[in-house]
Structure formats: structure tokens, C-alpha cells
Amino acid sequence: METIILQILNGLDKGSAYALIALGLTLIFGTLGVVNFAHGALFMLGAFVTVTLSRVLTLSFETIDETRTDFLGNPMRVDTPYVEAWFGPEFGGALIDWAVPLSILFAIPIMAIIGVAMERGLIKFFYKRPHADQILVTFGLAIVLQEIVKAFFGANPIPMPAPDAFVGSFDFGQLLGFDPYAIMYPYWRLIYFAFAAVVIGAVFAFLQFTTFGMVVRAGMADRETVGLLGIDIDKRFVTMFAIAAIVAGLAGVMYTPILSPNYHMGMDFLVLSFVVVVVGGMGSLPGAVLAGFLLGILQSFASMSFFIDLIPGINQVIIYLVAVVVLLTRPRGLMGRKGVMED
Questions:
Q1: 330: how many CB neighbours lie within 10 A of its CB?
Q2: What CATH number is attached to the domain comprising 181?
Q3: Which end of the chain is more exposed for a tag (fewer CB within 10 A), N or C?
Q4: Which residues cross the membrane (predicted)?
């Protein structure tokens, strides 16, 4: 039972990332009808917003500490971050320690600007083009973005620690009545799952309970009729593209302590997230979220040594096998609208 619970927790952790990226992909496809293969790059850019803020906060100058000496007896030169010199060692040190959560404040406007620039500068010219053209141009854009990141930040992963308050593991087993230390799970992974649940809930609430969201949902169902009512649906769809970019960026920001940012992380998650979208149903927001968590849990169980010994490499292909089965038996996906992908 402890192993099953632990694998479910691992699956929810992976599924949270899949669901957030797939949610953004589905928002874009459902509103604009665009297959955006550059969406994984937005996840990567969000992670590197965190890297950039961390480097800015740790910019330092050299000072001489008369109270410390090196092995020759000379006063030691030490690096003092500017934020500690400006705000004091306690508050300045706290800013550096909490760089990952603080990045959320910077990622929201930055990712919104990037999303609008991407949509207005390139993708709007491909709305009426075949999906193959959309895939090619957005895939090319993703490669360009990752090469730019590689040029500025290098090819090696960049570790990003979680705040000290969340280092360590939570005794999840004791909470459920098991023996102490039976199920230990990292604090930050639990926080990531909770964060993903809040973001997903906020997006659904925005679409369900606001006038803006209602118009967008109506436009997703029948764009021409909404346009005939005198509503500029295109402007609202641009806003949705920005929201999708923000969701992907925030997913990348909070994932940095779990996976050290690197220039190809967006492409790694994109392929899996696109499979999640197909399994959940193209254009179905609940389907994308449901499939993200289900496939994350399934991949977690497939990573157990028992299954790997039984079928070597099953953890690497299980998601694709599920996608093949779903497409053969239910082409529109688990929660896709009837007729989508079925003609």
C-alpha cells in the first residue's frame, strides 16, 4: 500500500506539469484552431525567467572582511550580493532564498508579452493555413527559441534550489495512519501539485464565471455567430493566447527545483503534453487536465522496477501505447467533442 500511494504521488507530480502544459495547448487549439508546437518553449522560457532573476539577485561585489583571514594571514576577500548590501543581510538573503516563488511576479507580465508577440508577430498569419504548416512554423520557432537560450545560458542544466523552508520531505504516511517515515515525499513536489491545482482552478473559474470567459467559450463553439453579434472575438482570443503562455511559463517557473532548467526541457515536455492533449480530446480543457494526471500516474507505475524487469523500457513508451489504443478505439479522445478527429 505504501508503494502504491508513493507512485500515485509521483504520478500527480508529473501529471501536474503535463496538465498545465496541455491546458495551455488546448486553450490555443480550442480558441484559435492552431496546433502550437512552440508551447513547450514557453514552459522553458518560464524556467529561465527564474534563472535570470536568481542571477540578478546574486549579483555581487567584492569586499575585504577584516575579521577573516586566508591561509597566509591576509584579510579575506568575500563576495557580497548587492541586495544584501541594500536591504540588509536578512531581507536580502531572504530575497535570494525565495527567488523561485518571486519569479512568479516577473513571469506573469513577461510571458504575457512573449505570448502576444508570438501570436501577433507570427502565428496570426497561419490561422487559415493547414495544420501541417502550423506545426512546421511553430516547431521551427521552438528550435530558434531554445537555441537562443542555449547561446545565453549554455548547454548544461542550471540547478535552482527550492527555498530553505521547503527543503526536505513530508511524512505523508503518518498523516494517513501508517508508521512514521513509511511514506516520505519532498515538500516542493507537494507544493507544485497544489500550485498546479490552483492555476487550473483559476483558469476554469475565469472561463466559467466571467463574461469574458463566457464569450470565449461561445467563440470556441461557434466563432462566426459570435462575430455576427458585433463582438471582436479576435482580441479576446489574443488575450487567451497570452493566458496560455502565462500558464506554461508558471509551470516552468515552479518546476525548476524539480528539474534543473536546460535549453531542451521544453521540447521534452512538449511531445508528452501533446500526446496528453490527443488522449484527453483535442479542444477539451477538462480532457487535457484529466489525461495529464491519468497519464502521469500511469507513467509513474510503469517506472516501478517490477514492470521494467517484466517489460524493459515500458516506462518510456507507456504513454504512447495508451495514445495508440485511444486513437484506435476513440479517435476524438476521452472527452473530445463528437466529430473531432473522427472524419
A1: 15
A2: 1.10.3470
A3: C
A4: 16-35, 42-61, 98-123, 190-216, 237-258, 270-295, 307-328
